[in-house]
Amino acid sequence: MKRNIKNKLFATTTAIILCTAIAGCSSTAGTADNSTASADVIGSTVTESVSETASETTVSQTVSAVETALSSSSSIISDTADIFSERDLKQTADTSSAQTITVSDGKTIDITAEGVYIIKGTAKNCTIKVNADSKAKVQLVLDGVSITNTDFPAIYVVSADKCFITTSNSENTLSVTGTFKADGTTNTDAVIFSKDDLVLNGTGKLTVNSAQGNGITTKDDFKATGGTYIITSAKDAIEANDSVSISAGTYTITSSKDGIHCENDEDDTKGSIYISGGTFNITASSDAIQGISAAQIDGGTFNLKCSEGIEATYVQINGGTVNIDASDDGINASNKSSAYSTPTVEFNGGTTTIVMGQGDTDAVDANGDIIVNDGTVNITAQVSSFDYDGKAELNGGKVIINGEEVSEIPQSMMGGRGGFGGGMGGRGGFGGQNGEFGGGQMTPPDFDGNFDPNNMPEGFDPSQGGRGGKGGRMFGGQQGGQNTQQNGQTTQQNTKLTSARTGFSNLDFTALSGITNL
User: Fold this and answer.
1) How much is the pTM?
2) Contact indicator for 430, 500 with CB cutoff of 8 Å
């Protein structure tokens, strides 16, 4: 979408300049009128006054203003161009003044000053501890190092402005085999644990194994711009408090909890994830990628096998190739952050493919809105393709559901079987929200336990059916209904099926034996 809008706005700007130039020529011929032009860009007015002698500088300024407006309006995470510093993006360290450290068994290696440190060797129960000035930048170059600890981090950053962990063209392994012990009041629960900003980059490989805790944790910002990482963890593979930002690299993650997780317990406006590139192969028991406030995908290749694929209050996919195989929700916008008034899933580009498992599942689920502006969204779902509590917009791009392109976003499509007078929803009842019986309660008024289709209880209107339960929520499932409009609201035709509207756990199916035309 951004590209399309940009092209249109550029064309508009060019037309403005051409019209102005024509007006200038006309003025030369005797017309004294001056020309001015203005352009509206996504809610913000970009006005560029153009004189009769419009120059290339003016054109450049106008286009620049248009691009600035586009950039600021399309990204939910501000200042993405400034996220990574030049040093963050540099994959090799300047080792001309570096110190070389060889690890050894049972040692704590203290680093207290800014600088570059080359780490080599093999050791057990060894910790590299960074405790430098709060303004210090410390760079650890892992050059064929292997550390296996029992209960404490292999790398522990207590204090620094920023700590770089850079892999040389080598293979490195950091492992903790047991339950982590705390450092005073600090719950040091990861193989790499940092209280301050952490940056991963390099040209080599780093394998991280955490038998009982997280793989990598920072209590501040996490960035990664290169390298190859294999992370296996009992809890979150990568965890940060304030933000996760990744521009490149290859990540193979196996987690018994979340693959990438960002959450600040004290400030729910933080906890964002921004990814502009890289390759991600994530297998997670819970979420593959979860940011409490926002998750923005601008590029990269993602193969996610998980319970939920991508979750945040605001999920925005602007590019990349995203493949999700999920057993719960493929993409979920849940209301967990006050940074955004409406939970939203927004597609502006890229190719997103979601394959859903059976049961109570949604390919794209929003507690607010779903917006498709561009890109391709390809969903295979036996139950529900889209579920939203707010609005749904299909403004561009392509949406495919079970092999068929659609022209509008459905509400809980493929979900909540519609037969028997409304979907089989609710807590054990046929047809109706929260297990309601034909639009009423689960048990009809004055029901005495004997079901007679020719003598319906007072107050029970079979023609009203009931709103169908959310797909897969049948016979004692979870809360049904939830706006499954497409499969509710039955017609008079359903009156032929009233004998089947029982919804009781003690249903006597012999009552159905004489019914025809089902």
Assistant:
1) 0.70
2) yes
